[in-house]
Design goal:
The complex is a heterodimer. Chain A contains 8 helices and 6 strands, in the order αββαβαβααβααβα. By secondary structure, chain A is an alpha/beta fold. Chain A has a 6-stranded parallel beta sheet with strand order 2-1-3-4-5-6. The longest helix of chain A is centred in the N-terminal third of the chain and has 15 residues. In chain A, α3 links the parallel β3 and β4. Chain B is α+β, with helices and mostly antiparallel strands. Chain B is built from 5 helices and 20 strands. In chain B, β11 and β12 form a beta hairpin. The chains are: A alpha/beta, B alpha+beta. Chains A and B meet through α1, α2, β4 and α5 of A and α1, α2, α3, β12 and β16 of B.
């Protein structure tokens, strides 16, 4: 019997297959942030049993180029070999994630991306005075408009990674910005962006067709009462990593 | 060894045997080493069912690009498999892919003035990328909200700014713009080549300030400029095509001025000028004469029931300079035309995409599914 066990163990040890994956949950914050935790909307890392949550050090204050290379470094650290990652992005973090996937390709083991209130498609607030009040007033906040984020990279070539989108339609002070954003919005981004739509325009739901490749609506076609800050943790709660979300 | 210990040991051996069997099953699919995406079935076995993916799962239907509606409820393993029926570097292309069909088309839309919700304006331009001696044509249109009645405005300031976040107020250089027009319609043409100091990829902001009788407004947008001296590579116009493992591969000649990592995108159209698929080359090109291999995946063409001769469009590219802002140095888009041989639809494999990376992801997500954590779209909120 002992010999049999030894043979079995030896076979398992010699099998050319990865050991059970280490799972990392990568969190990426929004515009003007350097990490996920803190800032507008608070931000607490999700927790899943037996997994490790990572607060990605991604500087979104001055340059998408800087943010892209920093996120790539994080993914290189945690999402290769036999590891598996899930990525939770918020606001402009959704743009950084899409851009990183597009430019670097599909080298990472990413189960999926959950994009809360994503600014992947840019915001009409870029270049307005509301940027400072809503986003915090860093340089980059004025340069994440619809053309910046839509022409800037190929949103369809994102390495075969599935991105689940969620979007809100709640009011956010000082409120006037919703008159600028087309269709339904969370006070910072319109559903043209949070829904992953490939064309700008007025949308009243994120459940229509017309999304970028492998972008999907998850869990709700719209969180009607949640504003941009409320949305920060929502994707994490929806995916079982936290409780207490609105 | 006591009886309970023996039972435990027997159980452990059984688990190991089951695990080994699973490993063998997982490894039935031979590893593929090709740098390009490979159909799961060989060219020779075209028409036969594709080899089953690992775990013996049946083929799944690909997500329909632009066509999926409603909430997804797929579990993560199913979602991954449906998202990867085609390779990451080649997918179907339809008339609905406006962003890929017109990659230089801007995306601003009209918005209300900050202090007058009855008036809308649109400040935009005819392009996002300007290269070499090219010019950008900016327009300002101001009208009543709800109809197209022009609202007369006065331009009180207009300038182009070379953006440099390392400088005070991010102003690297500023030049005035001359808008011409009347009433609510104004325009300005700006040729950045006049900024002779520029030598590499640059972000330029276009700023305008205007006023109606009741309110003032400022607006801005950015565009990307590549001076002639900053062009990293050019398409030579030397193109050829062939069928490789049931996929169409177009080899595009590139004269590389600065070696490095390149992203090159291209669209494919059929004989009726209908979009068929897109392809991306992503790889290193050395300085000098180089070739970018653009693979249009067999199943993409087979599913479109398209046949040749095909022709290309929107062949474009950029050199990636990591961490440098801007980090994508643009190549001049290919201005010529190219048509392939007249391949019949039967020349293309309809087999699903497969790769070692895909198999590993299926394995990892299968483990996760058994664990019951991270249910993704299939989870209850």
């Amino acid at each position: 019997m002992r010999t049999s066990i030894k043979i079995g163990v030896a076979l398992l040890m010699s099998a050319p297959i990865a050991a059970y994956a280490d799972v990392y949950d990568i969190h990426v914050g929004g515009i003007c942030s350097t990490q996920f935790v803190g800032g507008n909307g608070g931000g607490t890392l999700g927790a899943w049993p037996g997994e490790t949550s990572i607060d990605a050090p991604v500087d979104q204050t001055s340059s998408m180029a800087t943010a892209t290379v920093q996120l790539a470094n994080t993914l290189n650290t945690y999402c290769t070999g036999s590891n598996l990652c899930y990525v939770y992005v918020y606001s402009n973090g959704g743009a950084v994630m899409s851009r990183t996937l597009s430019i670097y390709g599909a080298a990472w083991n990413i189960g999926y991306v959950v994009a809360s209130a994503s600014n992947e498609g840019g915001s009409e607030l870029g270049g307005t005075g509301y940027i400072g009040q809503v986003f915090g007033g860093c340089y980059l906040a004025g340069h994440i408009g619809t053309s910046d984020n839509r022409n800037g990279w190929n949103h369809d070539a994102v390495g075969g990674v599935v991105t689940g989108m969620i979007g809100g339609d709640g009011w956010l002070a000082p409120y006037a910005q919703s008159a600028i954003l087309p269709g339904h919005d969370d006070g910072a981004v319109a559903e043209e962006s949070s829904g992953g739509y490939a064309s700008t325009g007025s949308y009243d739901s994120i459940c229509y067709g017309g999304k970028w490749t492998n972008h999907q609506a998850w869990w709700s076609c719209e969180y009607g009462s949640l504003n941009h800050y409320d949305m920060k943790e929502k994707g994490i709660c929806d995916d079982g990593g936290a409780t207490g979300c609105k | 060894m006591t009886r309970p210990t023996k039972l435990l040991a027997l159980g452990a051996v059984a688990v190991m045997i089951a695990a080994i069997a699973a490993i063998v099953l997982l490894r039935v699919e031979p590893a593929r080493t090709s740098a390009t995406a490979t159909p799961a079935a060989s060219h020779e076995s075209r028409g036969m069912p594709a080899e089953p993916v690992a775990l013996g799962a049946a083929r799944v239907a690909a997500y329909v690009d632009r066509g999926e509606t409603g909430l997804s409820t797929d579990d993560p393993l199913t979602a991954y498999r449906r998202a990867n029926v085609y390779p990451p570097n080649s997918h179907p292309l339809t008339r609905d892919h406006d962003d890929l069909l017109h990659p230089n088309q801007r995306h601003e839309i009209a918005r209300v003035m900050d202090d007058d919700a009855k008036v809308k304006f649109l400040f935009t331009a005819d392009r996002y990328f300007v290269i070499g001696d090219g010019a950008l044509h900016a327009t300002l249109d101001v009208h009543k909200d709800g109809d197209a009645t022009p609202v007369p405005v006065r331009i009180t300031g207009a300038y182009a700014v070379v953006l440099d976040p390392s400088k005070p107020d991010a102003v690297g250089m500023q030049v005035p713009l001359a808008f011409t027009g009347a009433g609510g319609s104004w325009a300005a043409t700006f040729a950045p080549a006049s900024l002779t100091q520029l030598s590499r990829q640059t972000t330029i902001g276009m700023y305008v300030e205007f006023e109606t009788d009741h309110a003032r407004q400022h607006a801005h947008f950015d565009f990307q400029y590549t001076p002639a001296s900053g062009i990293p590579a050019r398409f030579t116009g030397e193109l050829r095509d062939e069928i490789v493992d049931g996929s169409l591969v177009i080899h595009a000649g590139v004269a590389v001025a600065r070696g490095g990592r390149y992203l090159i995108d291209c669209n494919l159209y059929d004989a009726s000028d209908e979009p068929v698929g897109w392809s991306r080359f992503q790889g290193d090109l050395a300085e000098g004469a180089a070739t970018a291999d653009l693979q249009f995946f067999g199943k993409v063409i087979a599913d479109a029931k398209a046949s040749g001769p095909f022709h290309i469009g929107e062949l474009r590219g950029a050199r990636f300079d990591p961490g440098v802002d801007p980090d994508l140095e643009q190549m001049p888009p290919f201005a010529g035309s190219y048509a392939t041989a007249a391949y019949p639809a039967s020349a293309f494999s309809d087999a699903d995409y497969d790769s070692p990376q895909k198999q590993q992801m299926i394995q990892l997500l299968s483990q996760e599914q058994a664990r019951g954590v991270h249910l993704g779209a299939a989870g209850s909120r």
